[in-house]
Amino acid sequence: MARARHELTETMEEFRRAEWAVTKQGQVKSGGGRHDKDDSRRIDDRRSYVLGWSNEEKVQLLIEEAHHLQRQLTRIDDERGALTVRRRGVEERRTSLDQLQVFGDWSELDWMASVNRMSDLTAEKQNIEASSGELVKVTELLKGVQASLLARRDERDHLIGENRGDERERDSQVSVLDRLHGLLADGGSEVSGEILKELERLFSKRLRDEPFVDVEAVDRADASIRSTLTNSIDSKRQDLQRRGQRIVGRMREFRVKFPMDVAEADDSVQSADEYRRLQERLAVDDLPRFEASFKEYLNTNTIRDIAGFSSQLHKHAELIKERVDTINESLVSIDYNPGRYISLIVTRTPSTEIRDFIADLRACTDDSLAGEDQDQYSEQKFLQVKRIIERLKGREGQTEADRAWTKRVSDVRNWYVFSASERSRDDDVEHEHYTDSGGKSGGQKEKLAYTILAASLAYQFKLEWGVTRSKTFRFVVIDEAFGRGSDDSTRFALSLFARLGLQLLIVTPLQKIHVIEPFVSSVGFVDNISGRDSRLQNLSIEELHEKREARRRER
Question: pTM for this structure?
Answer without folding.
Answer: 0.43
